[in-house]
Amino acid sequence: MQASPHYLVLRNLDAIIDSSPLTVGPETLVLDAIALMAERCQDVLVKSGSQVIGCLTSQDIMRLVALGTELRTTKIAEVMQSSVIKLKVAAGDALKPIVSLFSQTQTQLIAVIDEQDQMVGVITPESICLALGVVEMVENQLLQSQQMLQLIMDTIPHGIFWKDIHSVFLGCNRNFAKMVGFENPEDIVGKTDFDLVVDPEQAEFYDATLMEANQPEYYQIIPKQQADGSQIWLETNKVPLHSIGGQVVGMLGTVQDVTQRKETQEALEKSEEWFRFLAESIPQQVWIADADGNLVYMNQRVLDGFGSTRERVLGGKWTQWVHPDDLPNVVNVWNQSLATGINYEVEFRLFQKPSGTYHWHMGRALALRDRQGKIVNWFGTNTDIHDRVTAEIALRESEEYFRLLVEGVKDYAIYMLDPEGRVMSWNSGAECMTGYQAAEIIGRDFACFFPPEDIANAMPKQQLEAASVNSRCESESIFVRKDGSYFWANCILTALHDDTGELRGFCKLTRDITERKLTEKSLLRLQKAIESTSDGISIANISGQVIYVNPAFTEVLDYTGIQLNTCGGLVTTFRNPKVFETVLATVHRGESWHGEVTMQAQSGDYVQVDLRTDAIKDTTGKIVYLVSIYTDITQRRFIEEGLRLRDRAIAASSNGIIIADITIPDGSITYVNPAFERMTGYTAAEVMRQNFRLFLGADINQPALEQMKIAMQTGQDCKVILRNYRKDGSLFWHELNISPVYDTEACLTHYIGIQTDITQRKQAETALLVTQQRLQYLLSASPAVIYTSEAMRDYGTVFISNNIKGMVGYEAQEFVKDSGFWFSHIHPEDASDVLAELSQVQVFDKKQYSLEYRFLHADGTYRWIYDQGKVVWDKAGNPLELVGYWADITSRKQLEQELRTALEKEKELNELKSRFISMTSHEFRTPLSTILSSAELLEHYHQRWTEEKLLIHLRRIQTAVHRMTEMLDDILVIGKAEAGKLEYKPLFFDLVEYCRQLVEEVRLNLKSQHLIFFTSQCKSISCYMDDKLLGYILSNLLSNALKYSPDGSLVRFTLACKNEQAVLKIQDQGIGIPEENQPRLFESFYRANNVGNILGTGLGLAIVKKCVDIHNGEIYFTSQLGIGTQFTVKLPVEKYIK
After folding, report:
1. C-alpha span between 287 and 280 (Å, rounded)
2. Mean pLDDT of all residues in the chain?
3. What is the CATH number of the domain that holds 996?
4. How many domains, in total, are found in the chain?
5. What's the CA gap between 555 and 753, in Å, rounded?
6. What pTM was estimated for this model as a whole?
């Protein structure tokens, strides 16, 4: 059963608060207070002003009586309880905490105060019991009413719910429970809107607002999102619930699903909105009439047009705005439509109040029928067609005017074409222009006016298509008259379409422009001539403002016409403005001006111009324009100045210069310079019109003359050396260079000869030739090679004697042609030293230098060269060249090398001898001492000793002899190896088996506790080796491993085969080899410095190295002090080439 709303009365505690408590002042006598308490049956509160300062209860009275207190004279302030519990009670406080407070404090009274600490009332156990008794009685009475009410609510189709002050559901009817998804109404108790909606954000507490405002809300329509995503609309009514004291304690609401009604209403509103929008926005007048023809609606355009009110128009007086002439027809058609139901359509004139005129309208109306086909009303529109009707009338008038105009035009051919291009009309202008009469041309294709080549290119068809697409086609071309003559015409072809956009034909307007074309052609020729000339041309008004400039003017002075006028006109181009004033004054007098002027271009450069200025006059002779022609003579002036300077240069030249004109018979001389006069002794006047043979005398048999003759005949340059004779008959040598000169038509006209006196050079060459022949003889007879070279850069050879080939196999020219040839053939190891020495010679101003370096011979070998030379310096202290000689010292260097080798060999032998003597003196002394001592003991004591003791000394002698034998064998082997006499006799055997047998032999001879461990990766390895030399290798390596390892240590011996090589590794755990001794370990008689007293000759590893080399193998080792050493030997197993 849901909680009754009446229980809310207890929750707000209003029923248990006594708002009129019994109060007295602190001066009141106790007996008076008891009388009041008996009268009111209440405990009393003591107040001082507005403050509660204590209380007196019935229990306090009993205590006072028991104590014998004088009640008549005692003031209540003296015996009251000074501590009174004060409680602020809010609207939502519960009863239970207050009951618990009475139980815990044993108090009989609680003062209730408000937010301002003002007393509101008191709560006592009696007030609580009284309130609960009333509620219990009321509950029993309401239970039956509630059950009846619940039954009524469950039968109502609306959803009903109620909530407390915190918007928590207290109950609902069955319809509301089903609406929110619950089976039973009890399931909703204790839930809020957050538990009922799909989206928690939609759970807004509208109820809280309602309860705060304490105002009911009716007919509120709100959306609700369903769990399946759909949305429904709910109509809600909510009223606040009040307690007995008038406090809001909750709310009661009803809910109804109005989704269908909402959708229907929205569709109707939208439909009406669309209709209103359409009716008010379309440009027509819209009206609606009932089935009898009475107007029931019209849009604002009707009212605006009539200038009337809606009531007046709806009253049936609309006919007064129809034109009197159109009214009978309008009424007749409207009555016919009302009678038959056919569509209403009529054209008539309506009076328009804004303009005060009648406008043509098209009236249309359709009958709207119900489902039974009965006419409900008429929907009509009045469309303003005044512009169209007016345009049609104007068009008819215009067509008539146009016809008259076309017929009267004589200068233009105007005619119509059908869509296929056939002539449909013909005016008098067309007759005059083409020679065709209307009867002759109408019906013919307009292509007959085109030349044959245009017809072949389908130009008539293209123009029709272009006009159809673009509505217009304009062209200028040649056409043909009836008599076959041609004329130029400008034609405009316009496409004509009807209202539906369909092509109806074309209108063609043709104007004869033959005369204009001829004028344009003439002007174009003149313009091209002006624009193509190299002279600048300007046309200006009489004040100098430019009207026209040609491209050449812009190219010369860098000004366009606009730029020049912006800067001030023509005067801007004159360097001296007074010259411009002179030109203007001359032209204004009616005269032409011509002269050379310095002008300034826009770039600031000065330009020399030959200027000619004339006046242009109108028909009355008045000067209106100035025309000027500018010829740029800057280049000509520059050439003239250059020629003048060249003339002066030629005149001042130390070489003789001759110019001969071959267009004159015999090629006479036309010019000689002063140097020629000084060189030959002849004056210019004496040689003019003379031939070159004047200077040859009788010496005409010179080969150079024939060479010069051939060159002059073929028009080529020529350089010869000739013997000539001066005027006084003395001989002089000169070098003559002749060059041909051609005119602009490539015809040979002149020869220019440059003559240089080389008499002294010839004399010096003769002396030099004699000196060179002498020197060449000396060089060829000397073993040394003489050279000169550059003193800088790559020291390229300038000269080298021919005997260089005998020394290094190269021709002398190879050194001279390639400046880097000498340095590139020096041995790379010597090149840097050579450069350093030559650089020091120049830096420290040394006079001489001497070098020794290797030079690559042509046969690919290097030869030692001794290079000695000196630096030649100029007067300023700059190096000019290097002069020196080479000597081949290869033999000497070889002797020096052999001598050094011999000395090193001797030193090595002496060292070897010293080590051998040291070894033999040490190693042989011990066994010899053993033999000597044992022999002496045997000699003196052999009769006294036992046989066993005798054998001990005999064995010592045998061991010492064996040791000496081994040492001698090692010495013999190393001696043979050093002498290259150690024999190599390979044979085939199994290497694995050989190694196993060798290890067994070594084990048998072991006297210590060493262990030898042999392993092989292969069961059998066939090899082709010298087994004796292999024995030397393995025996020595195993012997050393055992000798230098402590007793009990392990020696590993491994054998493997890889890449056709036997890989033998012997590893010990011995003393190791010091790093500083490792490089010399394979030298004869050499021992490491950490062997101590361990016996050894220092020959074992030397023998091993020699034997490995004989097998064409390799040996290497790794060692660490105190850890051990590993030797690795690699020997080929199949083939060996000694």
Report:
1. 11
2. 82
3. 3.30.565.10
4. 8
5. 40
6. 0.28
